[in-house]
Write a structure and sequence with these properties.
single chain, 407 residues, alpha/beta, five-stranded parallel beta sheet, two-stranded antiparallel ribbon, 15 helices, 57% helix, elongated
Length: 407
């Protein structure tokens, strides 16, 4: 029985050994596959992590361009541009000098003082211009042109264009003290339109402002009544103008000379007046104002007004002076060269309404009650031109004073 047990147990030992060897081999194969799976998983996780980091960086860049800027403490990666390469400078060739020559050293130039002088001159010029601009209003206020305008509007009737042109010329000339030529104004018109009255108002206004010694009101028939006194009158006129101009220069004022009845001036006296106006070599003669009053050219003015009465009624008074001035300039130039250097201011005919205003003003001055029925009756006694459905006075307001004195 023992032998049988021994024989039975003999073959069982190698079977157990085979079973063990097979188990070990299976475990080793299982561990290798597990390691492979672990390595694959690690690679997958690493690849996934890289993809997530790349997507996060792209989302940060996009959010910078579209979303509003929000301050964070996260460090941002900045793409720095690649460094630029410096361009190599080409070496210039050496200057070759002749063997028998020598190099000439340029001496150091001294600093020129002309630049400093030019800079100082510019500053002085700027200050003078600025001071002149600041003093423009002071010169105009000295002569009170606003007050003169009010006086002319109140006492000169029917001459709005001439009044505006006269004030504009005076304002432009009196705004500064330094001039290149004198101001020559020539008033022309038929009898009774207000030429002499306008001259008297100017003389009265400037006598009050610049005193009587700087204003000359010259009546030709009164100062030089006969032809035998023409030479002495011319000499006397030159002396008076020179003294007034010199005195005005000392006081830094502008004198004014008003010549009435210029149509009665002889040629020698006109030549003397023209020489005074055309003086160029002395500065004091350039700062003067000349006002010439005459009825020269009244035929041209009367014909123009009567021919264009209908168009003037439509409100075209602004072009009367522009069209009349060339005609008068041509005719007056034939009379004497004096008017080639003058500004022509034509006074037109007065209408019946303007004559009525003259009667009302004169009656108020004399202390009469302004009865409109009586004024219309007096205005109807004056002769008129009839043109374009309008009435123009033949004598203007010249007969107004005589008729009021008869009341």
């Amino acid at each position: 029985m023992e032998d049988q047990d021994s024989t039975d147990s003999g073959p069982e030992e190698p079977q157990d050994q085979n079973i063990k060897e097979n188990g070990i081999q299976g475990f080793s194969q299982l561990s290798a596959s597990v390691q492979a799976v672990v390595r694959i998983r690690q690679k997958y996780l690493a690849l996934k992590k890289r993809r997530l980091e790349k997507a996060a960086s792209q989302s940060v860049c996009c959010s910078r361009s579209t979303s509003p800027k929000i301050f964070t403490f996260d460090a941002l990666t900045v793409n720095t541009p690649p460094p630029m390469r410096k361009k190599r400078r080409k070496r210039r060739g050496r200057v070759q000098y002749p063997s028998n020559g020598y190099r000439k050293v340029v001496p150091n130039q001294e600093h020129s003082r002309a630049k400093n002088c030019l800079f100082l001159l510019c500053i002085i010029l700027f200050l003078q211009v600025y001071n002149a601009i600041e003093n423009l209003d002071d010169h105009v206020l000295r002569y009170d042109l606003e007050g003169l305008e009010k006086v002319l509007k109140r006492e000169v009737f029917g001459q709005q264009e001439v009044r505006d042109n006269l004030l504009a010329q005076l304002k432009d000339y009196l705004s500064t003290y330094v001039h290149s030529k004198p101001l020559v104004l020539s008033l022309h018109g038929p009898s009774g339109v207000g030429k002499s009255h306008l001259g008297r108002l100017l003389a009265q206004h400037f006598r009050f402002l610049v005193e009587d010694r700087l204003v000359l009101q010259y009546y030709t028939l009164h100062r030089c009544p006969s032809e035998d006194q023409v030479a002495s009158c011319a000499q006397n006129l030159s002396t008076i103008v020179s003294e007034m101009v010199t005195q005005a220069e000392d006081e830094e004022k502008i004198p004014i000379f008003i010549f009435d009845e210029v149509e009665h001036m002889p040629k020698q006296l006109l030549d003397q007046l023209h020489d005074l106006i055309r003086v160029r070599h002395m500065n004091e003669y350039l700062n003067t104002i000349y006002v010439l009053i005459s009825n020269l050219g009244h035929e041209e003015i009367t014909k123009y007004v009567l021919h264009n009465a209908s168009s003037m009624a439509a409100g075209s008074h602004s072009r009367v002076g522009k069209e009349l001035t060339p005609l008068l300039q041509h005719s007056l130039g034939k009379h004497h060269m004096l008017w080639r250097d003058a500004e022509i201011l034509p006074l037109t005919l007065l209408e019946k309404s303007h004559v009525t205003q003259c009667f009302m003003d004169e009656m108020s001055r004399e202390g009469f009650y302004p009865d409109f029925v009586h004024i219309e009756q007096l205005a109807g006694e004056i002769s008129y031109y009839f043109a374009g459905g309008r009435e123009f006075s033949r004598t203007g307001c010249k007969q107004v004073v005589a008729k009021v004195n008869l009341l």
